[in-house]
From TrEMBL:
Annotated keywords: ATP-binding, DNA-binding, Nucleotide-binding, Phosphoprotein, Transcription, Transcription regulation
Gene name of the record: zraR
Sections of the chain in a coiled coil: none
Residue positions, PTM 4-aspartylphosphate: 73
InterPro entries assigned: AAA+_ATPase (IPR003593), AAA_lid_NorR (IPR058031), CheY-like_superfamily (IPR011006), Homeodomain-like_sf (IPR009057), HTH_Fis (IPR002197), P-loop_NTPase (IPR027417), Sig_transdc_resp-reg_receiver (IPR001789), Sigma_54_int (IPR002078)
Ranges of residues in domain Sigma-54 factor interaction: 153-380
Stretches assigned to the Response regulatory domain: 24-136
Cell membrane in keyword set: no
Protein name: Sigma-54-dependent Fis family transcriptional regulator
Keyword flag Cytoplasm: no
């Protein structure tokens, strides 16, 4: 990551300069009509909105960050929304269940999980407005969080400083940005920082292009006219419309269905789009930031990403270095994560000296996300205020000749290992969408869930044994 030459020198440590934070809302629902209506109300109240149409996608979202509020539908294509509540930090998030099929059992379960409300569809817009307003007011009244780093980003390595410079340089322009790097290295955080530093007046709207089917994504992105498909009872604007004058973050762009890539190309070329079932081209002013954890040129070469779309998305590329190439950042990050946990838990736990060495030397193949999860786990297991980091996971070995889309096994690999790697790679290929991965593998999504749970249990047992 070469740093631009003309920029003034940067300090090696960044003084916290928290921007005024918009409250954040996660909508977990596959009911496009409801999603659009709720998002529109929240947007008008200044919320930053993230939408997940499936449970697996929502789980990924809440593992990545906290939301001030989550609206969670119960009946999702890949499971029950209630299971998401296990992954939500209820102290930080107001979780509200929204359902079209209420029952005493789910209501009892919901309140047992500390949800703040259980709403039955159709929900009056005023009720939603009131909920959003209450949550925003409460968040503002809370004591300020511990000093935040620059746009929540921690780091002081050369690679990090160069990335920060790129963000600052590119943010004020309206150039499309493509952020690429390994999983968990901070691409979404960078996209948010670009938006926050851009001075754009509209919201940041994130959409995961790999997590929902092409048809649903088209309707979510472009919106639809009344009657354009069964269930389209009224006209709705899409994410593009919601992100007007703001930033549309297209995550996992290389997983977007080819037909949709063609539509998107049109938007980027002409600055206008058409709702599903519509006959008029509507102008839209939006900044596009996209991200992928694939090598973008390889994605083009393999036909996964249209070449013409790539050139339009990649007005400016931001390659993100993996954590193992960021010097002492791992320690700075671990300290920041522990400080955050200490502040939330009102504790003063500290890493053991061995843990500090381990944090510096471990390869962190899952990058910042893996480090954050490891710190969290070690904090929970801490005794006498001593936080002991677990032994690092070995780097996944990529076999000779293996690409992001192929798997190669050495003679003598066990069936169990082959199965584990096939499952992992297929999930990765389908952007962690278990339903699509299951269809490709000819098994059920439940089988995938069971295998993953088994792996997690094995890993936990290994930890306990060590
Ligand atoms: N520089 C950083 N400072 C503080 N936290 C960070 C930093 N980079 C990443 N994180 C945290 O690490 C986690 C993963 O980051 P993020 O979701 O942005 O990664 P990603 O590259 O988008 O991952 P994926 O490819 O899996 O989607 C998040 O919890 C994020 O807040
Ligand atoms: Mg991401």
């Amino acid at each position: 990551m070469a740093a631009p030459q003309s920029h003034p020198p940067m300090p090696s440590e960044f003084t916290p300069a928290p921007p005024l934070r918009s409250p954040s809302l996660l909508i977990v629902d596959d009911d496009v009509g409801f999603v659009h209506a709720a998002a529109e109300i929240a947007r008008l109240q200044g919320y930053e909105i993230t939408v997940a149409g499936e449970l697996a996608q929502a789980v990924n979202r809440v593992k990545q960050r906290d939301f001030d509020m989550a609206l969670v539908d119960l009946d999702l294509p890949d499971g029950c929304g209630l299971s998401l509540l296990r992954d939500v930090d209820m102290l930080r998030t107001d979780a509200v269940v929204v359902t079209g099929s209420p029952s005493v059992a789910t209501a009892v379960d919901s309140f047992r999980n500390s949800v703040v409300d259980y709403l039955v569809k159709p929900i009056a817009p005023d009720r939603l407005r009131e909920l959003f307003e209450d949550c925003a007011t409460r968040r503002r009244a809370e004591p300020p969080a511990p000093a935040r780093a620059w746009h929540d980003m921690v780091g002081a390595s050369d690679a990090f400083v160069a990335t920060r410079r790129m963000i600052e340089k590119v943010a004020p322009s309206d150039v499309s940005v493509l952020v690429h790097g390994e999983s968990g290295c901070g691409k979404e955080l960078i996209a948010r920082a670009i938006h926050a530093a851009s001075g754009r007046t509209g919201p940041f709207v994130a959409v995961n292009c790999g997590a929902v089917s092409g048809d649903l994504l088209a309707s979510q992105l472009f919106g639809h006219e009344k009657g354009s498909f069964t269930g389209a009872v009224s006209r709705h604007g899409g994410f593009l419309e919601q992100a007007a004058h703001g930033t549309l973050f297209l995550d996992e762009i290389s997983e977007m269905a080819p037909a949709l890539q063609t539509h998107l190309l049109r938007v980027l070329d002409f600055g206008c789009y058409r709702r599903l079932g519509g006959h008029v081209d509507l102008p839209v002013e939006v900044r596009i930031v996209s991200a992928t954890n694939r090598d973008p040129l390889q994605a083009v070469a393999s036909g996964r990403l249209r070449e013409d779309l790539y050139y339009r998305l990649c007005g400016f590329a931001i390659p993100v270095a993996p954590l193992r190439e960021r010097g002492d950042d791992a320690r700075l990050l671990a300290d920041a994560f522990l400080a955050d946990l200490n502040a939330r838990g009102n504790t003063q736990f500290a890493f053991t000296p061995e843990s500090r060495t381990l944090i510096r030397d471990a390869p962190w193949p899952g990058n910042v996300r893996e480090l954050r999860n490891a710190v969290q786990r070690a904090y929970i297991l801490a005794e006498d205020g001593q936080v002991r980091m677990p032994a690092p996971q070995p780097m996944p070995q990529r076999a000779v000749g293996e690409s992001s889309d192929t798997i190669t096994f050495a003679v003598g690999t066990t069936f169990e290992e082959m199965e584990r790697r096939i499952l992992r790679k297929t999930l990765q290929h389908f952007g962690n969408n278990r339903r699509r991965a299951a269809a490709a593998l000819g098994i059920t999504a439940r089988t995938i869930r069971n295998r993953l749970a088994r792996e997690r249990d094995c890993a936990a047992n290994e930890d306990d044994d060590s």
